[in-house]
Amino acid sequence: MSRRGTDIALTALAPVTWGTTYLVTSELLPPDRPLWSGVLRALPAGLLLLAVTRHRPHGSWWWRAAVLGALNIGAFFPLLFLAAYRLPGGTAAVLGAAQPLLVAALTVLALRDRPHRHTLLAALAAPLGVALVVLRPDAGTDPLGVAAGLTATAAMATGLVLTRRWGRPAGVGTLAVTSWQLTAGGLLVVPLAAAVEGTPPAPDGPALAGYAWLGLAGTALAYALWFRGAGRLPLTQVSVLGALSPLTAAALGWIVLGQALDATQLTGFALAVGAMVVAQLPARPAPTRPGNRPSAAQPASRRPAAQPASRQSAPIASASGNAPSGRSAAAASGRVNRCAAAGPAAYDSPSIQRTSSTVQPSPRRPAMSRTSLRPGRVSSS
Protein backbone atom coordinates (compact mmCIF):
# COMPACT_ATOMS: atom_id res chain seq x y z
CA MET A 1 0.00 0.00 0.00
CA SER A 2 1.25 3.47 -0.87
CA ARG A 3 1.90 6.11 1.74
CA ARG A 4 -1.22 8.02 0.74
CA GLY A 5 -3.30 4.85 0.96
CA THR A 6 -1.92 4.19 4.44
CA ASP A 7 -2.82 7.72 5.54
CA ILE A 8 -6.38 7.30 4.24
CA ALA A 9 -6.81 3.90 5.92
CA LEU A 10 -5.51 5.12 9.28
CA THR A 11 -7.67 8.25 9.14
CA ALA A 12 -10.75 6.16 8.30
CA LEU A 13 -10.23 4.15 11.50
CA ALA A 14 -11.22 7.21 13.55
CA PRO A 15 -14.86 7.52 12.35
CA VAL A 16 -15.19 3.73 12.31
CA THR A 17 -14.25 3.72 16.00
CA TRP A 18 -16.61 6.62 16.72
CA GLY A 19 -19.38 4.56 15.12
CA THR A 20 -19.18 2.13 18.06
CA THR A 21 -20.18 4.88 20.53
CA TYR A 22 -23.92 4.33 20.13
CA LEU A 23 -23.69 0.58 20.77
CA VAL A 24 -21.35 0.96 23.75
CA THR A 25 -23.42 3.78 25.26
CA SER A 26 -26.76 1.99 24.91
CA GLU A 27 -25.50 -1.38 26.12
CA LEU A 28 -22.82 -0.62 28.73
CA LEU A 29 -22.94 2.96 30.08
CA PRO A 30 -25.36 4.32 32.72
CA PRO A 31 -28.37 6.10 31.19
CA ASP A 32 -29.11 9.83 31.24
CA ARG A 33 -25.52 10.92 31.94
CA PRO A 34 -24.29 12.15 28.55
CA LEU A 35 -22.21 15.06 29.84
CA TRP A 36 -20.35 13.02 32.43
CA SER A 37 -19.88 10.35 29.78
CA GLY A 38 -18.22 13.00 27.62
CA VAL A 39 -15.98 14.07 30.51
CA LEU A 40 -14.99 10.50 31.36
CA ARG A 41 -14.34 9.86 27.71
CA ALA A 42 -12.10 12.88 27.02
CA LEU A 43 -10.35 13.93 30.25
CA PRO A 44 -8.72 10.61 31.29
CA ALA A 45 -7.58 10.02 27.69
CA GLY A 46 -6.04 13.50 27.52
CA LEU A 47 -4.25 13.14 30.85
CA LEU A 48 -2.93 9.71 29.81
CA LEU A 49 -1.51 11.02 26.55
CA LEU A 50 -0.10 14.04 28.40
CA ALA A 51 1.74 11.73 30.82
CA VAL A 52 3.08 9.61 27.95
CA THR A 53 4.29 12.46 25.72
CA ARG A 54 5.46 14.80 28.53
CA HIS A 55 4.98 17.88 26.37
CA ARG A 56 3.14 20.90 27.71
CA PRO A 57 1.95 23.82 25.60
CA HIS A 58 4.16 26.89 25.43
CA GLY A 59 3.72 30.40 24.15
CA SER A 60 0.70 30.91 21.92
CA TRP A 61 -0.15 27.23 22.10
CA TRP A 62 -1.73 27.70 25.52
CA TRP A 63 -4.66 29.61 23.99
CA ARG A 64 -4.57 27.68 20.72
CA ALA A 65 -4.92 24.38 22.57
CA ALA A 66 -7.81 25.85 24.57
CA VAL A 67 -9.58 27.02 21.39
CA LEU A 68 -9.10 23.68 19.61
CA GLY A 69 -10.14 21.77 22.73
CA ALA A 70 -13.28 23.88 23.05
CA LEU A 71 -14.26 23.42 19.39
CA ASN A 72 -13.40 19.72 18.98
CA ILE A 73 -14.36 18.52 22.48
CA GLY A 74 -15.73 21.09 24.92
CA ALA A 75 -18.45 22.51 22.65
CA PHE A 76 -18.87 19.53 20.34
CA PHE A 77 -19.75 16.91 22.97
CA PRO A 78 -22.52 18.85 24.86
CA LEU A 79 -24.11 20.14 21.64
CA LEU A 80 -23.99 16.68 20.09
CA PHE A 81 -25.66 15.11 23.13
CA LEU A 82 -28.30 17.88 23.18
CA ALA A 83 -29.09 17.21 19.52
CA ALA A 84 -29.23 13.47 20.19
CA TYR A 85 -31.73 13.96 23.03
CA ARG A 86 -34.04 16.32 21.13
CA LEU A 87 -33.83 14.69 17.69
CA PRO A 88 -34.11 11.14 16.39
CA GLY A 89 -30.73 9.53 15.94
CA GLY A 90 -31.06 9.57 12.17
CA THR A 91 -31.66 13.31 12.00
CA ALA A 92 -28.67 14.03 14.24
CA ALA A 93 -26.49 11.74 12.13
CA VAL A 94 -27.47 13.53 8.91
CA LEU A 95 -26.62 16.90 10.45
CA GLY A 96 -23.20 15.54 11.39
CA ALA A 97 -22.73 14.11 7.90
CA ALA A 98 -23.07 17.63 6.48
CA GLN A 99 -19.65 18.47 7.93
CA PRO A 100 -17.76 18.05 4.58
CA LEU A 101 -19.72 20.94 3.05
CA LEU A 102 -18.83 23.23 5.95
CA VAL A 103 -15.21 22.13 5.81
CA ALA A 104 -15.09 22.85 2.07
CA ALA A 105 -16.43 26.37 2.60
CA LEU A 106 -14.09 27.09 5.52
CA THR A 107 -11.14 25.71 3.57
CA VAL A 108 -11.75 28.22 0.80
CA LEU A 109 -12.17 31.11 3.25
CA ALA A 110 -9.39 30.35 5.74
CA LEU A 111 -6.83 28.39 3.72
CA ARG A 112 -7.51 29.74 0.20
CA ASP A 113 -7.61 26.13 -0.99
CA ARG A 114 -10.38 25.21 -3.40
CA PRO A 115 -11.45 21.54 -3.32
CA HIS A 116 -11.63 19.63 -6.57
CA ARG A 117 -14.94 19.10 -8.32
CA HIS A 118 -15.18 15.36 -7.68
CA THR A 119 -14.50 15.96 -3.97
CA LEU A 120 -17.35 18.48 -3.76
CA LEU A 121 -19.69 16.05 -5.51
CA ALA A 122 -18.70 13.38 -3.00
CA ALA A 123 -19.30 15.83 -0.13
CA LEU A 124 -22.87 16.27 -1.46
CA ALA A 125 -23.51 12.58 -2.08
CA ALA A 126 -22.22 11.29 1.28
CA PRO A 127 -24.87 13.06 3.45
CA LEU A 128 -27.56 11.94 1.00
CA GLY A 129 -26.47 8.33 1.40
CA VAL A 130 -26.38 8.66 5.19
CA ALA A 131 -29.89 10.17 5.10
CA LEU A 132 -31.19 7.15 3.21
CA VAL A 133 -29.64 4.84 5.80
CA VAL A 134 -30.68 6.51 9.05
CA LEU A 135 -33.69 8.78 8.38
CA ARG A 136 -37.21 7.53 9.01
CA PRO A 137 -40.53 8.97 7.76
CA ASP A 138 -41.48 10.03 11.31
CA ALA A 139 -38.17 11.81 11.98
CA GLY A 140 -38.73 14.99 13.98
CA THR A 141 -37.32 18.45 13.31
CA ASP A 142 -37.16 20.13 16.72
CA PRO A 143 -35.71 23.63 16.08
CA LEU A 144 -33.47 23.64 19.16
CA GLY A 145 -32.17 20.17 18.36
CA VAL A 146 -31.47 21.11 14.74
CA ALA A 147 -29.65 24.28 15.88
CA ALA A 148 -27.58 22.28 18.37
CA GLY A 149 -26.69 19.66 15.75
CA LEU A 150 -25.65 22.23 13.16
CA THR A 151 -23.64 24.19 15.74
CA ALA A 152 -21.86 21.02 16.85
CA THR A 153 -21.04 20.21 13.23
CA ALA A 154 -19.80 23.76 12.60
CA ALA A 155 -17.64 23.64 15.75
CA MET A 156 -15.99 20.38 14.67
CA ALA A 157 -15.48 21.67 11.12
CA THR A 158 -13.89 24.89 12.40
CA GLY A 159 -11.63 22.94 14.73
CA LEU A 160 -10.53 20.71 11.86
CA VAL A 161 -9.64 23.68 9.65
CA LEU A 162 -7.78 25.47 12.46
CA THR A 163 -5.89 22.25 13.22
CA ARG A 164 -4.63 22.27 9.64
CA ARG A 165 -3.88 26.00 9.61
CA TRP A 166 -1.95 26.11 12.91
CA GLY A 167 -0.19 22.77 12.49
CA ARG A 168 2.01 21.74 15.42
CA PRO A 169 4.87 23.38 17.31
CA ALA A 170 8.35 22.40 16.18
CA GLY A 171 9.46 19.13 17.76
CA VAL A 172 5.98 18.25 19.08
CA GLY A 173 4.12 15.21 17.78
CA THR A 174 0.46 14.58 17.05
CA LEU A 175 -0.14 12.70 20.31
CA ALA A 176 1.02 15.67 22.39
CA VAL A 177 -1.23 18.16 20.58
CA THR A 178 -4.11 15.67 20.86
CA SER A 179 -3.52 15.41 24.63
CA TRP A 180 -3.74 19.21 24.97
CA GLN A 181 -7.08 19.33 23.17
CA LEU A 182 -8.62 16.41 25.05
CA THR A 183 -7.51 17.75 28.43
CA ALA A 184 -8.70 21.30 27.72
CA GLY A 185 -12.00 20.11 26.27
CA GLY A 186 -12.67 17.69 29.13
CA LEU A 187 -11.98 20.37 31.73
CA LEU A 188 -14.42 22.73 30.00
CA VAL A 189 -17.25 20.16 30.20
CA VAL A 190 -16.71 19.39 33.93
CA PRO A 191 -18.54 22.44 35.39
CA LEU A 192 -21.40 22.05 32.88
CA ALA A 193 -21.78 18.36 33.74
CA ALA A 194 -21.75 19.10 37.48
CA ALA A 195 -24.39 21.83 37.09
CA VAL A 196 -26.73 19.82 34.86
CA GLU A 197 -26.25 16.20 35.99
CA GLY A 198 -24.95 16.53 39.55
CA THR A 199 -22.31 14.16 40.86
CA PRO A 200 -20.55 11.72 38.55
CA PRO A 201 -22.12 8.26 38.22
CA ALA A 202 -20.64 5.29 40.06
CA PRO A 203 -19.66 2.91 37.25
CA ASP A 204 -20.06 -0.85 37.52
CA GLY A 205 -18.08 -3.51 35.65
CA PRO A 206 -19.74 -3.10 32.23
CA ALA A 207 -19.60 0.69 32.52
CA LEU A 208 -15.88 0.58 33.30
CA ALA A 209 -15.33 -1.56 30.20
CA GLY A 210 -17.38 0.87 28.13
CA TYR A 211 -15.53 3.93 29.43
CA ALA A 212 -12.20 2.20 28.84
CA TRP A 213 -13.10 1.46 25.21
CA LEU A 214 -14.45 4.94 24.53
CA GLY A 215 -11.53 6.62 26.29
CA LEU A 216 -8.64 4.60 24.84
CA ALA A 217 -9.87 3.53 21.40
CA GLY A 218 -12.75 5.93 20.72
CA THR A 219 -10.97 9.06 21.94
CA ALA A 220 -7.19 8.84 22.47
CA LEU A 221 -6.44 6.65 19.43
CA ALA A 222 -9.27 7.91 17.21
CA TYR A 223 -8.59 11.62 17.69
CA ALA A 224 -4.84 11.11 17.24
CA LEU A 225 -5.49 9.37 13.90
CA TRP A 226 -8.04 12.02 12.91
CA PHE A 227 -5.69 14.94 13.59
CA ARG A 228 -2.85 13.06 11.90
CA GLY A 229 -4.97 12.72 8.76
CA ALA A 230 -5.96 16.39 8.95
CA GLY A 231 -2.29 17.32 8.74
CA ARG A 232 -1.49 15.03 5.78
CA LEU A 233 -4.59 14.84 3.56
CA PRO A 234 -6.88 17.45 1.96
CA LEU A 235 -9.39 18.50 4.60
CA THR A 236 -12.52 17.97 2.52
CA GLN A 237 -11.42 14.40 1.79
CA VAL A 238 -10.82 13.84 5.51
CA SER A 239 -14.24 15.19 6.47
CA VAL A 240 -16.02 12.98 3.91
CA LEU A 241 -14.58 9.98 5.75
CA GLY A 242 -16.66 11.09 8.76
CA ALA A 243 -19.67 9.45 7.09
CA LEU A 244 -18.18 6.14 8.21
CA SER A 245 -19.35 6.90 11.77
CA PRO A 246 -23.14 6.65 11.22
CA LEU A 247 -22.62 3.87 8.68
CA THR A 248 -20.65 1.87 11.24
CA ALA A 249 -23.38 2.47 13.83
CA ALA A 250 -26.02 1.20 11.39
CA ALA A 251 -23.92 -1.85 10.49
CA LEU A 252 -23.36 -2.73 14.17
CA GLY A 253 -27.06 -2.32 14.85
CA TRP A 254 -27.76 -4.81 12.07
CA ILE A 255 -25.03 -7.30 13.11
CA VAL A 256 -25.21 -7.09 16.92
CA LEU A 257 -28.71 -5.83 17.72
CA GLY A 258 -30.54 -7.51 14.84
CA GLN A 259 -31.86 -4.26 13.33
CA ALA A 260 -32.99 -4.91 9.76
CA LEU A 261 -31.78 -2.89 6.75
CA ASP A 262 -34.24 -2.54 3.87
CA ALA A 263 -33.49 -1.89 0.19
CA THR A 264 -33.52 1.90 0.61
CA GLN A 265 -31.01 1.75 3.44
CA LEU A 266 -28.75 -0.58 1.51
CA THR A 267 -28.89 1.81 -1.47
CA GLY A 268 -27.94 4.71 0.77
CA PHE A 269 -25.15 2.65 2.30
CA ALA A 270 -23.71 1.95 -1.16
CA LEU A 271 -24.08 5.61 -2.18
CA ALA A 272 -22.26 6.90 0.90
CA VAL A 273 -19.44 4.37 0.58
CA GLY A 274 -19.07 5.15 -3.14
CA ALA A 275 -18.92 8.88 -2.35
CA MET A 276 -16.14 8.31 0.17
CA VAL A 277 -14.17 6.27 -2.36
CA VAL A 278 -14.58 8.93 -5.05
CA ALA A 279 -13.51 11.67 -2.63
CA GLN A 280 -10.20 9.92 -1.99
CA LEU A 281 -9.26 9.68 -5.69
CA PRO A 282 -6.27 11.86 -6.56
CA ALA A 283 -6.95 14.88 -8.73
CA ARG A 284 -5.91 14.69 -12.35
CA PRO A 285 -3.05 17.02 -13.29
CA ALA A 286 -3.89 19.91 -15.57
CA PRO A 287 -3.08 19.17 -19.23
CA THR A 288 -0.01 20.88 -20.65
CA ARG A 289 -0.46 22.87 -23.83
CA PRO A 290 1.65 21.68 -26.76
CA GLY A 291 3.04 25.18 -27.24
CA ASN A 292 4.54 25.16 -23.75
CA ARG A 293 6.69 22.11 -24.39
CA PRO A 294 10.25 22.91 -25.48
CA SER A 295 11.31 21.26 -28.69
CA ALA A 296 14.38 19.07 -28.30
CA ALA A 297 14.94 18.99 -32.06
CA GLN A 298 15.25 22.75 -32.41
CA PRO A 299 18.63 23.67 -33.95
CA ALA A 300 21.11 25.40 -31.72
CA SER A 301 21.39 28.31 -34.15
CA ARG A 302 17.67 29.12 -33.81
CA ARG A 303 17.60 28.97 -30.03
CA PRO A 304 17.60 32.28 -28.18
CA ALA A 305 20.91 33.56 -26.98
CA ALA A 306 21.89 32.99 -23.39
CA GLN A 307 20.53 35.67 -21.09
CA PRO A 308 22.24 37.13 -18.07
CA ALA A 309 21.78 35.34 -14.78
CA SER A 310 19.36 37.93 -13.45
CA ARG A 311 17.01 37.27 -16.40
CA GLN A 312 17.41 33.52 -16.46
CA SER A 313 16.09 33.06 -12.93
CA ALA A 314 12.51 31.82 -13.00
CA PRO A 315 10.09 32.50 -10.16
CA ILE A 316 9.10 29.76 -7.76
CA ALA A 317 5.67 28.36 -8.64
CA SER A 318 2.81 29.55 -6.54
CA ALA A 319 0.67 27.26 -4.44
CA SER A 320 -1.95 27.13 -7.15
CA GLY A 321 0.53 25.95 -9.74
CA ASN A 322 0.35 29.08 -11.94
CA ALA A 323 3.36 31.21 -12.65
CA PRO A 324 3.08 34.99 -12.43
CA SER A 325 2.13 36.85 -15.56
CA GLY A 326 4.78 38.27 -17.82
CA ARG A 327 7.02 35.20 -17.68
CA SER A 328 7.91 32.87 -20.49
CA ALA A 329 5.93 29.73 -21.27
CA ALA A 330 8.87 27.58 -20.26
CA ALA A 331 8.96 29.14 -16.81
CA ALA A 332 5.19 28.76 -16.45
CA SER A 333 5.36 25.04 -17.21
CA GLY A 334 8.27 24.44 -14.86
CA ARG A 335 10.63 23.46 -17.69
CA VAL A 336 13.84 25.00 -18.95
CA ASN A 337 15.75 24.41 -22.17
CA ARG A 338 19.15 22.84 -21.90
CA CYS A 339 22.09 23.43 -24.23
CA ALA A 340 22.61 20.93 -26.99
CA ALA A 341 26.31 20.68 -26.32
CA ALA A 342 27.71 17.86 -24.26
CA GLY A 343 28.90 18.60 -20.77
CA PRO A 344 27.29 19.44 -17.41
CA ALA A 345 23.90 21.14 -17.44
CA ALA A 346 23.81 24.89 -17.21
CA TYR A 347 20.81 24.94 -14.95
CA ASP A 348 20.01 23.79 -11.44
CA SER A 349 16.89 21.89 -10.29
CA PRO A 350 13.73 23.12 -12.08
CA SER A 351 11.79 23.15 -8.81
CA ILE A 352 13.92 26.02 -7.54
CA GLN A 353 14.63 27.38 -11.05
CA ARG A 354 17.83 29.22 -10.18
CA THR A 355 20.60 29.29 -12.72
CA SER A 356 24.16 30.47 -12.85
CA SER A 357 25.65 32.67 -15.51
CA THR A 358 27.71 29.82 -16.94
CA VAL A 359 27.33 29.44 -20.71
CA GLN A 360 28.23 26.14 -22.35
CA PRO A 361 30.70 26.33 -25.24
CA SER A 362 29.20 25.97 -28.67
CA PRO A 363 30.45 22.98 -30.68
CA ARG A 364 31.17 25.33 -33.64
CA ARG A 365 33.75 27.43 -31.81
CA PRO A 366 36.45 26.75 -29.29
CA ALA A 367 35.81 27.40 -25.63
CA MET A 368 36.98 30.78 -24.35
CA SER A 369 39.52 30.93 -21.62
CA ARG A 370 38.23 32.12 -18.26
CA THR A 371 41.17 34.47 -17.95
CA SER A 372 40.05 36.40 -21.03
CA LEU A 373 36.57 37.10 -19.61
CA ARG A 374 35.91 40.48 -18.08
CA PRO A 375 34.54 40.43 -14.56
CA GLY A 376 30.84 41.10 -14.51
CA ARG A 377 28.09 41.44 -11.98
CA VAL A 378 26.64 38.17 -10.67
CA SER A 379 22.98 38.10 -9.81
CA SER A 380 22.24 37.12 -6.23
CA SER A 381 18.88 35.62 -7.18
Average pLDDT level: 75
Helicity range: 55-70%
Strand content is under 5%
Q: Report the span from N to C terminus.
A: 41 Å
State Rg.
28 Å
Q: Segments where pLDDT lies below 50 for 5+ residues?
A: 293-363, 367-381
Pfam families: EamA
InterPro entries: AA-Vitamin_Transporters, EamA_dom, EmrE-like
Domain EamA: 9-134, 144-278
Keywords: Membrane, Transmembrane, Transmembrane helix
Describe the structure.
- By secondary structure, this protein is mostly helical.
- The chain has one domain.
- Helices cover 60% and strands 0% of the residues.
- The chain has 16 helices and no strands.
- It has helices at 3-18, 21-27, 34-53, 61-74, 76-86, 89-97, 99-111, 117-134, 143-166, 174-197, 205-232, 235-240, 244-255, 263-279, 309-312, 329-332.
- Helix 1 (3-18) packs antiparallel against helix 11 and helix 5 runs antiparallel to helix 9 (143-166).
- Residues 293-363 and 367-381 have low confidence and may be disordered.
Q: How would you concisely characterize the structure shown here?
A:
By secondary structure, this protein is mainly α.
Attribute tags:
381 residues; mainly alpha; disordered C terminus; Probable blue pigment (Indigoidine) exporter; EamA_dom; transmembrane
Set out the fold topology:
Layout: H1 3-18, H2 21-27, H3 34-53, H4 61-74, H5 76-86, H6 89-97, H7 99-111, H8 117-134, H9 143-166, H10 174-197, H11 205-232, H12 235-240, H13 244-255, H14 263-279, H15 309-312, H16 329-332
Helix pairs in contact: 1-11, 1-13, 3-10, 3-11, 4-9, 4-10, 5-9, 6-8, 6-9, 7-9, 8-14, 10-11
